[in-house]
Design goal:
It contains 14 helices and 11 strands. It is of the alpha/beta class and about 300 residues long. The protein has 2 domains: about 45 residues, no CATH class; about 240 residues, EAL domain (TIM Barrel), CATH 3.20.20.450. About 35% of the residues are buried. The structure holds ligand C2E and magnesium ion (2 copies).
Length: about 300
């Protein structure tokens, strides 16, 4: 596997990279970036971008993005019951770049829409190919940024992708964060209804880290299907010391049960965390305890087995 580059701690080399590599790009397809098309000339726009931002624009055409898949597990039955698709950028010189290090850049230059479409299409096509090969049929979830979630053509674009890839809607899930649903409730409600009508399930990602959280959740009763409890709560779960995290997780589980939402515990790393969760009747988990996100070629080996045990 290629080394992972943490861009936050590598600003000097990144700056040098940008300075040295700015002119390595053809100048003909900058207008791929939706938001700038027709507003400034390609060349002016290109000269205002860093080398990394330019690389990003060409990354789809150059086949540099890859989806990794992390299983969601029914811990009671030791079965894979779903997967989350997580994007990686295999940069030709910088190595493997994680999404938190390039999604904000993509958003800044208006390229996230295009990446989002690539992600959805690739995840749906991959899932359909696994099903056609006779493997376990599971829903695969994709992450949607708050800005993308608010765009008007979201539902029609998802419909198109499902038609094109021939994947049934029940096998695609969308993960959105609380920030996506905090603003403009009316628009959000109608979007959630549209997605629901298509037959897609919606998960609220990183639950507990936003501001609305518990108090606002009942507004979304019947519209949000799954809550993903953020890793920050899971990592503090303890059997010996009943920390705040135990209490919060227990509360979230009780509330979601009341609202008939399913729950996924994110970032489960230890048997102790799993045990606490199971004591609270939470059996759907995702985390390094079972598997890190894997390239499709490795994830398929897990799918073939269907069963999965904690890595101890
Ligand atoms: P997320 O959606 O909350 O995804 C879970 C993140 O936690 C992933 O990081 C995953 O690798 C990591 N993780 C899973 N289990 C464990 C664990 O047990 N321990 C620890 N320490 N980490 C664990 P990753 O892949 O770096 O993604 C980070 C974030 O980037 C995602 O958080 C999501 O918000 C965003 N992202 C990923 N792919 C996409 C995408 O295609 N589009 C958009 N818009 N955002 C994406
Ligand atoms: Mg997610
Ligand atoms: Mg999350």
């Amino acid at each position: 596997m290629q080394p992972t580059v943490n861009l936050d701690v590598n600003q000097t080399s990144l700056h040098n990279y940008s300075a040295n590599n700015k002119n390595n790009h053809p100048k003909n397809s900058i207008s791929d970036v939706n938001s700038i098309e027709g507003t400034v000339s390609d060349q002016v726009f290109a000269s205002s971008l860093t080398a990394l931002e330019l690389d990003l624009i060409y990354a789809i055409d150059r086949n540099e993005f890859e989806l990794y898949y992390q299983p969601k597990v029914d811990a009671k039955k030791s079965l894979i019951i779903g997967a989350e698709a997580l994007i990686r950028w295999n940069h030709p010189t910088l190595g493997l770049i994680l999404p938190n290090d390039f999604i904000p850049l993509a958003e800044k230059i208006g390229f996230l829409n295009k990446i989002g479409k690539w992600v959805k299409k690739t995840a749906c096509a991959q899932n359909k190919a696994w099903q056609d090969a006779g493997l376990l049929a599971i829903p695969v979830s994709v992450n949607l940024s708050a800005s993308r979630f608010m765009e008007k053509d979201l539902a029609s674009s998802i419909k198109e992708i499902l038609e094109e890839t021939q994947l049934e809607a029940q096998y695609l899930e969308i993960e959105i964060t609380e920030t996506s649903i905090l603003k403009n409730e009316e628009i959000v409600f109608s979007l959630l209804d549209e997605l629901k009508n298509i037959g897609i399930k919606i998960a609220l990602d990183d639950f507990g880290t936003g501001y609305s959280s518990l108090s606002n959740l009942h507004h979304f009763n019947g519209k949000i299907d799954i809550l993903k409890i953020d890793r920050s709560f899971i990592q503090d779960l303890s059997i010996a010391k009943q920390e705040d995290a135990n209490f919060i997780v227990h509360m979230i589980l009780q509330l979601s049960n009341h609202l008939q939402m399913d729950v996924v515990a994110e970032g489960v790393e230890t048997l102790e965390q799993l045990k606490v969760l199971q004591n609270y009747n939470c059996n759907t988990v995702q985390g390094y305890l079972y598997s890190k996100p894997l390239p499709a070629t490795q994830f398929v080996e897990l799918l073939k087995k269907q069963r999965i045990e904690p890595i101890c």
